[in-house]
Amino acid sequence: MMHGQRTSPRHEYLLQEKQRVLESPSLTEKFRALKSLTVDLSHFDPEGRTKNSQIKYTVNLEHAKSVFRFGCHNHECVRGDFDLSAVLAEAVAAHQTTVSSEMVCQGWRNRAGVDTIPCRNLLRYKLTLEYGARRA
Ligand SMILES: [Zn+2]
User: Fold this and answer.
1) Among 13, 39, 42, 102, which is disulfide-ready with 54 (CB 3.0 to 4.6 Å)?
2) Residue 1, domain member (yes or no)
């Protein structure tokens, strides 16, 4: 433990968000009808031209939390990230089987840029959902 060291705004935010995720129910608990969920995430720079990474995977509904968020790829980003919780909740409520759109990071580019320089990294996402009959 360091004494007298104040945590950075970035660190504080990440801890707080981590806690929010931990305290949320799992996807299985929250969305009983959801049988499977696959996410396809592409991270872009703010101009949307340079793809920094792409990941596609099937979400483990038992373990994944219903505060459904993904980290911004800007490692200095402050109070940003991508929260798809509402997108997912709406999709399930409407029984949609695919949702694709994009989201702009609402954080700040770095610590020095807080309140002045937005991050604006871009996440393009596609969610593929399957619904089951009532679980036994
Ligand atoms: Zn960001």
Assistant:
1) 42
2) no
